[in-house]
Amino acid sequence: MSAAKNKLAEVTNNDSGLYGQYKNWFLDYASYVILERAVPAVEDGLKPVQRRILHAMKEMDDGRFNKVANIIGQAMQYHPHGDASIGDALVNLGQKDLLIETQGNWGDVRTGDDAAAPRYIEARLSKFALDVAFNAKTTDWQLSYDGRKNEPVALPMKFPLLLAQGADGIAVGLSTKLLPHNFCELIDASVKYLRGKKFELYPDFQTGGMVDVQDYNQGKRGGKVKVRAHIEEVDKKTLAIRTVPYGVTTTQLMESIVKANDNGKIKIKKVTDTTAANVEILIDLAPGISPDITIDALYKFTDCEVSISPNACVIVNMRPEFLSVHDLLRLSTDRTKDLLQQELEIRKKELEEKWHYTSLEKIFFEEKIYKELEKKHDTWDKVIDAIDKAFVPFKKQLKRDITREDILKLTEKPVRRIYRLDIDELNAQIKGLEADIKQVKHDLANLVDFAVAYYENLLKKYGKGRERKTEIKQFEVIEAKHVAIANTKLFVNREEGFIGTSLKKDELLFECSDLDDIIVFTRRGIMKVVRVQDKVFIGKDILHAAVFQKNDERTTYNMIYSDGKGGVSYAKRFNVTGITRDKEYDLTRGDEKSKVNYFSVNPNGEAEVVRILLTPGSSARIKEFDFYFEEQAIKGRSSQGNQVTKYPIKSVKFKEAGRATLSGKKLWFDEKFGRLNTDEKGSFLGKFEAEDRILVVFNDGNYLITDQEMTQRFDAENILLIEKFDADKIVTAVYLDKKNLQYNVKRFRIETSTLKNKFFFIKEGDGNYVEAVTTDEEPVLAVQTGRGEQVRKAKFKIGKMAEVMGWKAVGAKLIDFNKSVQMEWIRDKTDPNQTELF
Questions:
Q1: Which residues are marked as active site?
Q2: For 254-257, which contacts have Cβ atoms below 8 Å and span 24 or more sequence positions?
Q3: CATH number of the domain enclosing 298
Q4: Which domain CATH number covers 795?
Q5: pLDDT in tens, 745-781
Q6: Measured by CB atoms within 10 angstroms of the end CB, which terminus of the chain is less buried, N or C?
C-alpha cells in the first residue's frame, strides 16, 4: 500500500506526469489563442483565419464572384475550425470594404443587421488586394495543419492594413483593440515617414460621426477617444441623428435613448428609426423642452457619445507586444520598402537572366553556331561540347558563364533560315532589357523615391471615395446636472423644516433634477446646501429654497436680521458662490435667538427699498422709516452687515423695486465649441443687461436673434457674425447669386422680433451663400480678384452705392463671380494699391 502511494506521488509530481500536464496545458492553450486566433500579426495585419481566407480566395480567383459557401469550403483546407468562424471572419472582412468586393446582402454595421446565408452572397478579391497583398515570389510558406497543402506564414502586405481596418480580439490574459484609420491619411503618413518628416494619425470610422482625439496618445494603452453621433435640429420639436458612433448600432442607440427617457434623464415623446441608405433616427421632443439642452443630454446620458480605449497589441516575432499606431506605421512602411526591394531584386535577376539567354540566342544565330548541329559528331555530348567551344570567342560579351542547360535550351529551338529581321528583333529585345535593367538598378539605388512613388500610385488608383468620414473635433465637457431634465418634484414643510421629494402632502416648491443641489435659508438665519433627497432636515421656519448654481456671482441675497444677544438689527448683501454640501452656515452673528426679519433674492443684484416698522413700545423717536439696500456693499456671506437700528423691529415690508447694482453681464463666444460663456473664453461680445439680445448671421443666408441662455448650441463653423444686437444698426451683406454668377450687396435693418427663429435674408437659389457681412456704420469692402500678375484690387464704399431696404430685398449687383475672389471689411485707411470704385 505504501509503495502504491509513493508511485502515485512520483507520477503526480513528475513534470511528465499529471502535474506536468496541468502545468503546461494552460500555457499551451493561452499561447495558441494569442498566436493563432485572437491577435493580428504585425507583418500583414491579419489574424490567421483572415490570412487563410484571403489565401483561399487567391487560389480561387478567376476574376469572377464566388459563392461565400464555396470560399468557406476552400478556406477549411487551411483553417482547423468550423465553417461558422470562417464565415463570420469573411463577413467582417467584406464589411470593411477594402480587400474584398461583395455582392448580395452582407449586413450593415450601422444597424447591426446580419448578412444573408453564405449560399446567397458572393465575394471576390478587390483589385487593391491583388495589388498589395499577394506575391508568391516574396511569400514564406509553411505546411497547413494537416500537412497536405502549403499556406503563407504571412502575406507580403505592402500597405498598413492593420491600421486601415482596425482589429478586435480577446485572448487568454490579454486583448487587442486597434481603431481603423483613414486610407488616404495612412498613405500620406507613410510618405512623410519615408521622407523623414513628422506625421500624425487619428482614427476614422466607416460610420462617420465626430471624434475627439485629445487623449488618443498614439493609440497606446491608457489612451482613449470620444466618439459622437451627428445630431441636427430639424425644428423646435424634432431632432435627427444622422450618424452612429463607432461600435454602436441604431438599435442599441434607440434603446439607450428610451432607457434615458424612462430614467428621467431626457424627456421625449417618440423616437423613430427611418434608416435606409443613410442613418436617420428622428426624436420628437416633449412640449416645452429645449432642443439644445436635449442634444447635450443625449450626448451625456445615451450612446450618442461613447468613449473607446484603444489597446494596440500585435504579434511581433511570435510574441505579443503593445505598440503605438506610429510604431505600427513605421514597421509597416519599413516592411513595404523591404518587400519592394525584394521584388526589384527578383525582377533584376529575371531581367538579367532573360538578357543572358537572348544574347546567347543572338550569337547562336548571328554567328551561325547552330550549324554545329549539322556536323557529324559521334555523340550528343560532343555536339554540346562543340557548341560550347564555338561560344568561347564571345563569352566576354556575356555577364555569366554558359551552362549546359543554356546550350540545351538553345538546341531545342527550331533550326530554320535566319533572316536579318530576326537578328534585329533580338537586338531590339536586348536593348529593351538593358533599359529595364538600368531602370531597376536606378530604383534600387533610390529605394525611398521608389517606395514614395509606389504609395502615391496607390493613392491615385484607390484613394477616390476614401476621404475622411469622421470629423475630428474637440468636445466640450457636459456636466450632467446642467442638462438633466427637471423631472423631480420637490416639496417643503416650512414649519418643521424639511424638504424632499417624498413630502407629497406638503407644499410643492418646484420641479428639479435629481442631480441638482438645493440651497435653503431659514428664519433663524441658517443656510444649507443639500442634494435632492427623499427627505432632509434643514431647520424650522424655512424662508427660501432654490436650485443652487455654483460660482454664481450675480444672484444677490438682501437680508435684515436681529441679533438675539443684543437685539441690534443688521442689514447685509451677499453672494453664495461656493460651499461645502450639507454644512450649516450661520448668516447672523451666531446667537441661537437671532432671527431674519427680511429676505429677498435678486438675480442681477437689484437693491430694493423697504419700509421698517419698529415695535410701538420702543423708545425710538421715529418708529417708521425707509431703508435703501443700494447703500449697502455686497460682501461675503460671513460678514456681520451694517447696523440698521438698535430698537426692536416689528416688521419689514417691501416698498419699492430697485435698480440692478451690478454692471452688465460680460459675455464671450467660444468659437471652438459654439457656446456663450462668462469665463472669458473666445471673442468678447460685450456687457449685457437682462433684456439685451444677440444677433447671429450664418453663411447660409440666415440670421437669428437670440437671448443670453448659456445652454444654447451654435454651429460656429457657419457663423459669419455674432454680436450684441442693436435694432438701429444696419446690416450690410454681400452674397453670391449662383444662378447669375454675380455677387449682390444689400443693406437692411432687422425688422423681426421672434427669438431663436432663423430668417433667410438673401435670394433663394442653389449654391447661394453669404460671403461677407458687417454692421459697421460706414462699411468699406476691400475686394481682390485674380492671381499672380492678374491680381486686381478694389475698394467699395458700400454706403454710397446701396440703399437701405427691407430684409427680404434681393439687393444690387456688386461684381461678377470669380473663383479667386477675396473680400475683407476695412476701416478709414486707404490702400494706395487699391482702386476706388463708386
A1: 120
A2: 254/281, 256/302, 256/303, 256/304, 257/281, 257/283, 257/298, 257/302, 257/304
A3: 3.30.1360.40
A4: 2.120.10.90
A5: 999 999 898 898 899 999 999 999 999 999 998 899 9
A6: N
